[in-house]
Amino acid sequence: MADYPQTSELALGVDLGGTKIFVILADAAGRVVSESQLLTPPTYGELEVFDTILEGVARVLSAGEPGGHAPQTVTERIHRGRIRLISEGRPVVGLGIGVAGVVSGCGNIICQAPNLGWKDVGFRRRLEIAVGLPVLMDNDTNVAAWGEYCYGGHGRPESLVYLGVGTGIGGGIVLKGKLYKGSSGGAGEIGHVVVEPGGPVCSLGHPGCLEAMASGLAIARIAKEEVRRGRADSLLPYADGDPELLTAQVVGTAVADGNPLAQEILTRAGTYLGIGIASVINILNPEVVVIGGGVARMGEAFLAPIQRELEVRAFPELRRAVRVCLSGLGRPVGALGASAMFFQRKLYSEDG
Amino acid sequence: MADYPQTSELALGVDLGGTKIFVILADAAGRVVSESQLLTPPTYGELEVFDTILEGVARVLSAGEPGGHAPQTVTERIHRGRIRLISEGRPVVGLGIGVAGVVSGCGNIICQAPNLGWKDVGFRRRLEIAVGLPVLMDNDTNVAAWGEYCYGGHGRPESLVYLGVGTGIGGGIVLKGKLYKGSSGGAGEIGHVVVEPGGPVCSLGHPGCLEAMASGLAIARIAKEEVRRGRADSLLPYADGDPELLTAQVVGTAVADGNPLAQEILTRAGTYLGIGIASVINILNPEVVVIGGGVARMGEAFLAPIQRELEVRAFPELRRAVRVCLSGLGRPVGALGASAMFFQRKLYSEDG
Questions:
Q1: Are residues A235 and A286 in the same domain?
Q2: What is the pLDDT of residues B30-49, one digit of tens each?
Q3: Residues B173 and B136 in one domain
Q4: Which of A29, A38, A97, A136 can pair with A4 through a Cys bridge, CB separation 3.0 to 4.6 Å?
Q5: Any idea what the CATH number is for the domain that residue A137 is in?
Q6: Is B127 exposed, middle or buried (0-12, 13-18, 19+ CB in 10 A)?
Q7: B183 and A158: CB-CB below 8 Å?
Q8: CB nearest B206 (choices: A188, A196, A313)
């Protein structure tokens, strides 16, 4: 955003994913004061995840502070004043958290987090008590869309659609400066836009949706299919000869090396992304579409097939009105958007 | 809408289509005082179309008035006070018009009306001068969506998506009580959502979009293909034995008679509509989706395949949150929405 609130305040931002937890401390302009990345406890136990978040919070708050921590729980340390909710004289006003899963409309409950195996977990209030700060919670791609809108350098677009292309594909929609959540809080499931009606199913059983055709999992599936077809001799060395190790990341490495099959696989995924984005553009006429997430970080090679599909499938007037680009914010986009919920709280939550 | 503005005022509503012009005079509650249907002059000359609209306006304003019209132009009659812009003591406050085509964001110019063969026609201001009333102009499916939102009996939904399924397929989106027009005024082109990426092209050249697969033109195309395959013996009698006369309307008549091939064709179109609507639901999480237009008037037979696709392709939470139904307003929905622009002017135009 062009004009940030003039304040010395800081906010915590947490991105809670299935494999990693990313915690930042940032100001209203999106400048990161400190950050910490932790592994999500592989047990996915609620208490363990909870403690890991608190550990991350403690780390970013005490970054630069002299000395180590006493062997107490983080909550004890916070409540005994060992970790002060103030950083170099700047007050910390709240903690925003984005969760990979479905968050209730009121923002209190994690209704479903398939990656963590959670259902109906009341998380927000507990975190609020433990940290001693107001907490706002939302879906991870919603907060990533918000981070991109606030800090992605897009000006003040009338509308912005964010696609997070990683293991799965999620989305978030900002309309008229507010996150758009839809009638029951679930808008932006762009990963489940249909792009090949007779295609294979995604993890939720939807045939031929974007997630089934263009996600990290889809790229890995296509690579393994090519092995079975005997076409993937040039790819296998990147996976130590083991087809099971052919992930999207491995394909990405091969793309960087100029491997033709890897490039073909990426182009196929990009083509489906272009088909899905064309549908989004024809429906919403957005000003900006931003593609983020691990797969998108494979770079510009991804954009060419997208642009090709838009040429053929998007309404000319709407195609001319939209900018489609890759996210420049990288990994912290979600945590940044989570912290930004506090600085743009009215805008963000008015819409909820 | 549950609560209508309390006013005795009336407004004119015009639906300007490629074959017909529909003019109504209605009150704020959507009650039609008088209506008139005229044929769009087949020459599509701007002046002829203009005069036909004025003729329709004169007819609905003078409905119930004694005696015929003097042989003057309608504009002369209006300006000489022969047609009073008042109906039984109720003032007429404006004229709303929906045009089958692309209308500029400011609502002054018809940028493109393929059915009429028009490009960049400054229509609104001329109509304002001729009629002596304020005129508001928008795309025909936008005003139809607005008519459905205001008078369709849906309560006050958070969001409503309207699909007009006729010769082509258009759409309109109402979010938070306002028509959503997008960043350049072109949102709602739901007819061009991709549903079969390798499918035949629509009139604009987009492969496998909803319009190419499920519109009236698509239904006619499929019926003709069946003739070429020798499968359509049972259908041909409905078209006097001439494949060229196999229109969507003819297929509809055969469906009503229980013709199995006609039912199969309609089911195929409904299936693609379901695929497209699933994508819309996954993106927007709307409260209501309404299907109107001539093809939709074929009735409930159309809804079953749509619901089947939604079961498979829409996010369960979002599917449970949405009501998908056929429009109950019939032909006047567009003209009603056009007149409603005046009674809900602030809501409607704030968004423009």
A1: yes
A2: 999 999 999 999 998 999 99
A3: no
A4: A29
A5: 3.30.420.40
A6: buried
A7: yes
A8: A313
